[in-house]
Amino acid sequence: MSQITNPILPGFNPDPSILRVGDDYYIATSTFEWFPGVQIHHSRDLANWELITRPLTRKSQLDMRGDPDSCGVWAPCLTHDGEKFWLVYTDVKRKDGSFKDAHNYIVWADKIEGPWSDPVYVNSSGFDPSLFHDDDGKKWFVNMTWDHRRRPLLFAGIVLQEFDPEQGKLVGPIKNIYKGTDLKLVEGPHLYKRNGWYYLLTAEGGTAYDHACTFARSRNIDGPYETHPDQYVLTSKDAPLAALQRAGHGDIVETPEGRTYLVHLTGRPTTQERRCVLGRETAIQEAYWGEDDWLYVKNGPVPSLHVEVPGTRDEAKYWAEQRYTFENGLPIDFQWLRTPDTDRIFSTEGGKLTLFGRESIGSWFEQALVARRQTHFSYDAETVVDFAATDERTFAGLTAYYSRYNFFYLAVTAHSDGQRELLLMSSEISWPDGNLKFPAEPVQIPNEGKVKLALTIRGKKLQFFYALEGQDLQPIGPVLDASILSDECGGHQAHGSFTGAFVGMAASDLNGMASPARFDYFTYRPVRDPSDRYEVDALS
Q: Is 428 a catalytic residue?
């Protein structure tokens, strides 16, 4: 046993669903509008985690073109019934306003790496679905349900129905088994069975600073369920100075030795405005079962920053520079937005990443943007681009990106007379409207030749750089506020933005000619900055 510092999955990795099969642990997390869908990490010791697959890789499984920001894949549930892996997920097509269009699906595989099946459509009554395999062989499907009438609540409770895998559909009656507590907004259900009790772990309070894990139990799977005597087994809602905020949406796992752990969503605000640039992350807490057959979080309900787990974390790997090349395809750390038709937006032939300029940055349909998560509060990023811009409607370069409303973008483009230039763009938004800004005067550059583009982030301070061939990097534009690349500034009202900051490469051709932009490599270099509160805590 050794002590590690939370989170175990830093950066945008929310809504964890954990599973142990033998000595192997797996965590599935939400990916929202980023493709391929669902991240699955693997560990043997609960301390060291490796991203091994994203199972929703093809159009038949997932097509998110048109899904608004922070829609797409919500709250997957990963389970194993002794023979197969099962993955349940939601594809949300609309979330803002009175209605939600949320479609729930199931896929399965013999091995975690796949191949994963085509999906079976299940229902659309709500989101956060989960599949429970009972010891009598039956399978039960639970999800929160949405009532647009607010009669009496929008979040109307957790509904249960049997799933028949042979027929590939829900069968039998639907029953609302749990309506939550006075905290409201009950969602994120997971079912368990232990000592003759059925346990229901849910999330309440919304996914912002009132978030909580609520626990309930019943002798019968369809209820009635009584709520835990403490109501909330995990929450930071009454501890505004706790290191881990927004704690909720959890799942439980047992080690082979019988120790119990709860993984959960969390956020780490880094500014006075309480902005979580790294989005919603996955943390872990040790838990135990009391003599009363209720689950308790050790030192809870406030989550602990430091937790003992079976393994020892490899900190050197966390701080290592990542230099990505493209000879063997696109590295697994990278994702793109919404479309399953990858051939239309990028290629790695010839060992370069070629982006084919499509729609504008922030499009909800087809844009060429390939990026990786920001997983450190301070880092450097760098790439080299070769792009023959022809006019102001063609541009390609380096972006620090949250959503269509929130991004910074240093692009190689051209003036209307065809003269190439560097243009710094930003969109800094408070809901509901945003305006494109130009924080610096454009810099004229030769019409031929590669350009090195770089940025540094130190906490909330963002600086862009550029260099022509044979020259050293020099800054361009002012120091910008990187903290707007956060859930709290993501273009929606409170509780409405769900992802995290990315950094990567983008290309647009608003003329519709798919102009290619070629990138030689991409570097992501974590930086230890003593001004970062959480890195100081982690090292103390």
A: no
